[in-house]
Amino acid sequence: MLRPRATRRRPRRIPPRRRPRQAGHAARGSASPSELGAWLRAAAWPCASTSAPRARSARRTASARTRSRRAPDLVIVAGGDGTLLSAARFAGPLGIPILGVNFGGLGFMTELQPEELYTALARVLRGAYDDRRARGAARADSAADGRILGEHALLNDAVVTKTALARMLVIELRIDAELVATYTSDGLIVATPTGSTAYNLSAGGPILDPRMSAFVIAPICPHAMSYRPLVVPGSVRIEVTLRSLTEEAYLTLDGQVGFPMRPDRRDRRRPPPALGAAAARRAPRASSRSCSASSTGATVERLPTARRGRQPVLRSSSWCLFDFANSSYTTLIMTVVYSVYFRDAVVGRADNRGDRLWGIANFLAMAVVAFASPILGAISDYSGRRKFFLDRDHAADGPRRRRSCSSSGPGDVDRTGSSCTSSRRSGSRAGTSSTTRSSPTSRPPRRSGACPGWAWAIGYAGGLLSLALCFPLIGRPLRDAAGRARSACDLESADLVRPRGRVLPRLRAPVLSSGCESLPQGRLAGFRAYATAGFRRTAETLRHLGRYRRDRSISSSPRSSSPTESPP
Amino acid sequence: MISFSAIYATTTFHFTSGDLVVLFLVLNVVAFPGSLVAGYFADRFGPEVAPWSAASGCGC
Lengths: 568, 60
What we know:
The structure holds two protein chains of two kinds.
Chain A: H1 25-29, H2 33-42, H3 55-67, E1 75-79, H4 81-91, E2 98-102, H5 117-126, E3 138-144, E4 147-154, E5 157-162, E6 169-175, E7 178-185, E8 187-191, H6 199-202, E9 214-220, E10 230-233, E11 237-242, E12 249-253, E13 257-261, E14 290-295, H7 312-347, H8 353-383, H9 386-396, H10 399-407, H11 413-437, H12 439-442, H13 453-475, H14 481-503, H15 523-556
Parallel strand pairs in A: 1-2
Antiparallel strand pairs in A: 3-4, 3-14, 5-8, 5-12, 6-7, 6-11, 8-9, 9-10, 11-14, 12-13
Chain B: H1 5-12, H2 17-45, H3 50-59
């Protein structure tokens, strides 16, 4: 494993490419761990090696290094596909790239031959290596009776197969909570594009390009000829439930770990458990197990940008720094200072006109954000430009506009109320929406969309800090209200925005979600596609919301005695 | 509601600017640990049961 060194800016000297001295086993011997370690140290890349039997300790080592913010930049796996799959179980969730060197029997995924190692490694260290073959990754949850039992990284496939007796299983397949089919077969394979050439291929499934964001679902020896392999988008949630009442089955993930399955006797009309609502506990004896796999998105970025190990906590905390700075504006300017100043000084009427104008300005700002967010969100998601949009939101809410707030005096109602306040409020809220949109990549999938509590706390800390800084200015008597507002705005613009301007360029853009390859290129075509995707996503969310409420009402009502659904 | 809170405080309760700052300082001081605790319960038990968990935890 490669670890980043503290000083990384000086150019590295890449050792000259070594020719394989001999072919065959002798060449394999040239890529021994000791020689590889010496080669990497000569290139100023410290490394650590571990053996396959100590994979458990390697996982602990990786976890410990993640906690200590020293995650490996690259994992080099010397072995076969099984060794790589084992390494992928702990390196995949951390976003650490894996370079496989084939020393084993099967080398579909360990693509490099030993004599190619140093050539490829030199390209990796130069940042010129781009492997598109093994990119599809997924997450599998084992669940029992609606409770999530565990989360597992998945690179190849999740397979449900029968155990001892050669009897068929009854397996129910749901995609995004919709019943798709009830298979009567020997089993079912849910494979990623990387795993489409494995068991799925032997079962008659298609081969998927690893750059695709998709799953292939292939039944194993189905009873009915109409059940053929199915390719679904990578953004869906697949739920596989064992419905056989007598047969026993096994759930195998990547051929590495397995769980016994028991039939699920729950009412079929009951909606599947919400991923965020169930606590992940280990049940001593589960009555049923199901596997739900959801894609974490195809990795589109190149290897050089993925050198640092992606650490969800760090990414999440980095993006929350925007809220830290943004809360100073929301708390100090919009809530405490400027609202009263706007009503009393800018409008300056004894009637309720100031309150009404203040409400209209805020309403316009929220309306703009509500209508523009789906499109802007789709553009930022599909084009991978979240960071750019966050920067633009910051510019729309920038220091000059804040200073214009303080420069507006009595009588500047139109300019201040209709344009300045609304645009600044829109920029602030759009920036908050941008940070929330980053949650699918900075939060675990089943927590996606939910801002963590400590992130809210960071925002409150920003507001608290700004209030404490402004207390001497606002609390002491100044000559007029405009003086107080100007002092607060200038202080907020000068002191608390600057750190955000410094932090933003250094943040890592989050990994993209799926679907960025499918949209057309070109400026106008891209905008139309993005707008269409944004509205389609909004409509889909509303449909899901309605279906969720309907399903909850069904589940809360007395259940019928017999299932009513049937496969289409 | 938050946007109108300062206007409401000055109109109804006749808060001065210094009083407003103190009010929101206290609110933020309370909100900081509150969001930490409620966020922990939300991550632990889910957002639907988190308010009840936080309430029962604070009650105990």
